[in-house]
Amino acid sequence: MSLTVYRDGKFMSEERAAVSPFDRGLLYGDGLFETLRCYEGKFFRLDAHVERLRRGLETLGITPPAALQEIGPVLRELANLNYVANGVARIVVTRGVGEFGLLGRFAEQPMLLAACWPQPPPPGRRYEAGIQVIIAHHRLSGCAGLKSLNYLPQILARREAEAAGADDAILLNTHGHVAEATSSNVFLVRDRELITPALEAEILPGITRAAVLELARAEKLPVVERVVHQNDLFHADEIFLTNSVAEVTPVTRLGGHWVHLGQPGPITREMMRAYGALVGREAK
Ligand SMILES: Cc1ncc(COP(=O)(O)O)c(C=O)c1O
Asked: Which residue of 138, 145, 224, 243 lies most exposed, with the fewest beta carbons within 10 A?
């Protein structure tokens, strides 16, 4: 089925939404995106996603397209037009078309593209049994804190995970510290303390990460954001990943090692439950 998408102020079929072959998002990955989940027609923490997008655009010196102000109604309309109750939405902003070359002078019209499609939640077995991750050979690039249109390190790491028979990969940053998984933030538990790489580790400031930190603090769990070493992962009592689409996913195998004897641990389960309840309160 052809989806209706939104591009630069208009709703149109996906076939009609072709972008210029000279769009800088295509040529150089010169742009940003957001992915968020839609629960029964409502978008979870949309404002936080838009705010992260705006901050990223400021860093890149891209003027936020005017249509970004209307993105809430636009996404709701896309959900209606595409019959989405539960699904995923994507917002893409690129610098648009400019003079050829890296500086892209005169790119005065950023492009905004939004789409929303039905998507069931990930399979239950990922939550019941947990997933297997490896540590990727590829390191994150210096722009990792931005949700940029260039995901090559993450794509290579995910391919490496698949070749190793694993579900996902954790990437190290340029200092060799634990950063994030290919499309998630990483948490670990040690002696009932919840630990996650600090934002200074050049990680994406995940919206789900922030929600989990909020929930953990509300439950008076000790929480630490700090430098995380590979060794911390191997000595963790529990590990889990967070992102908007998959929420809280337990990791039960790291390379050849079982984590928590191959079962999701109690704090991971508690965070899965608490996040589900938060979604229930805010987005349904
Ligand atoms: C590299 C990376 N880190 C972390 C996340 C988690 O971010 P969020 O919780 O905002 O979805 C994502 C989301 O796709 C990601 O791509």
From this structure: 224
